[in-house]
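pinging the channel bc i need a second pair of eyes. not urgent but kinda urgent?? the chain im working w is below, pasted from the shared doc
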Amino acid sequence: MARFRGVPVRDIELGKGVGVSRLVGFFGAAGGFTAKKLALGVDVLEGMVKDKGSLNFLSFPAALVSTGVRGVFRTLAEKKLFDVFITTCGTLDHDLARVSRDYYHGDFMADDAVLHRRGVNRLGNIFIPNECYGEVLEEEMQPVLEDLYSNGLRESSGYELVWEFGRRLKDRKSILYWCARNRIPVVVPGILDGAFGSQLFFFQQSHRDFKLDLFRDEQLLADRVFEAKKTGALMVGGGISKHHTIWWNQFMGGLSRAVYLTTAVEHDGSLSGARLREAVSWGKIREKAKYVTIEGDASISLPLMAAALLDRLS
C-alpha cells in the first residue's frame, strides 16, 4: 500500500519571542479546527488589503463597540485598511457616548431588575448607566444638529452626516473621528434603529424641513461597487450590516475575498448563521473566491487577527 502523502500537523511551540503574529502562524501549521481557519482568515485579509485594485468593506454590528474591541475598529480606520464601513446605529451611539463617558465592567448574571431601578443598562457583561448613553447623546447631538441647521444644512446623506459628527470630535480613540478624517464612508442602513436615529427624529419634529436622504448612501455604494474591478470584505457578525455588504457586491459578480466571523448556528436558516459558501449560490461571493467562515467570539478572534495582520503589513 502506498504511503499517504499530505501536509503534516505541527505542534505549537510556545516560548520566548512568540508574539501574536508568530502564534497565528503556528495556528496555520497546527492543522487544528478553528485555529487553522483563523490563520487562513489572516492570509485572506493580507491579500485583500495589499491588493490596491480591491475595494474593501468592513461590516460589523454595534455590540463590540461597547467593549475594548472599539479600539480595533478605530485602528483599522486610522490605518485606512478598509474603504467602506457598514454597521448598525448602535455603533454611532456607543462611539459618540464613549467620547465623553465611560462604560463599565459588569456581569452576565447581574440582577437586571435591580439594574433597571438603578438606571443601569446591561449589554452582556458591560454596564451602561443612563447618563452614559441616551442622556449624553441628547446633550451632545442636539447642539451639533442646531449648528448644522443654522449653517444651512437642510438635507444630508447618512454617511455625510456621520462625517459631520466625526469631524467635530477631538478624541483620537473614536472610530468616527478617523473615518471623518480619512473620508471613509460609514453606511448605516438601519440608522433610525438606535439612540442616534431617535435624536435625528426628535430634532426633525421642530425642524420639519430637515431631511435624511438614504438613497444617497445607496448611490455611494452603487458607484463604488460598479467602478471596482474586484472587492473584498471582513464581516464581523451577521444581520443587516453583513447582508448589506454581500447584497451590493452581487451586482459586480460577487466578492473576490471574504472573511466572516460568527457565533450563529447554520441550521435555522438565518443570515447570521449562513456560511459564506451559501452566498456563492446567490452570486454574492464568486465561485473561485478566497473565503473562510470562522466560528467563535469575535471579541477574541478579531483582535488576534488584526494584530497579526498589522504586524505582517509593518
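so The chain has one domain: 32-313. and The CA atoms of residues 196 and 219 lie 22 Å apart. — does that match what u expected or am i reading it wrong
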